[in-house]
Design goal:
This protein is mostly helical and 103 residues long. The chain has two domains: 1-30, no CATH class; 33-103, no CATH class. The protein is 66% helix and 6% strand. It is built from five helices and two strands. It has helices at 17-27, 33-60, 65-73, 76-85, 92-101; strands at residues 2-4, 7-9. It has a two-stranded antiparallel sheet. The radius of gyration is 25 Å and the shape is elongated. The termini are far apart.
């Protein structure tokens, strides 16, 4: 597409701008509602896991890569439980015990 004077022209095989826009619009597939919901849930879970990891690092110091992976693999309900449990942790041993008990 390009401008010539006050008109917008399309260099796509002589088609008018309206037809090009319409063909693009109708060929684009919008995400279905279920897929959108699943994507939002995955994003929310990842965000919760990252927050819990930051809180644990602040409370206990840097976590090992293995511990981080274990925590990221937890289901959302367990991430929430860990978020509450970490308030009572005083050492890394508390985290290790919690992870063993909640795999």
């Amino acid at each position: 597409m390009f401008f010539t004077g006050n008109r917008l022209r399309c260099a796509a095989a002589g088609r008018s701008v309206g037809n090009v826009v319409a063909s693009f619009f109708f060929s684009y597939q919008w995400p279905d509602e279920e897929g959108l919901h699943q994507g939002l849930e995955k994003g929310r879970h990842a965000g919760e896991a990252e927050l819990v990891l930051r809180l644990l690092a602040r409370r206990l110091g840097a976590l090992s890569v293995a511990q981080q992976k274990s925590i990221r693999k937890l289901p959302p309900s367990k991430i929430e439980e860990l978020g509450e449990a970490l308030l009572d942790f005083s050492s890394r041993d508390d985290l290790v015990r919690w992870l063993r008990a909640n795999k």
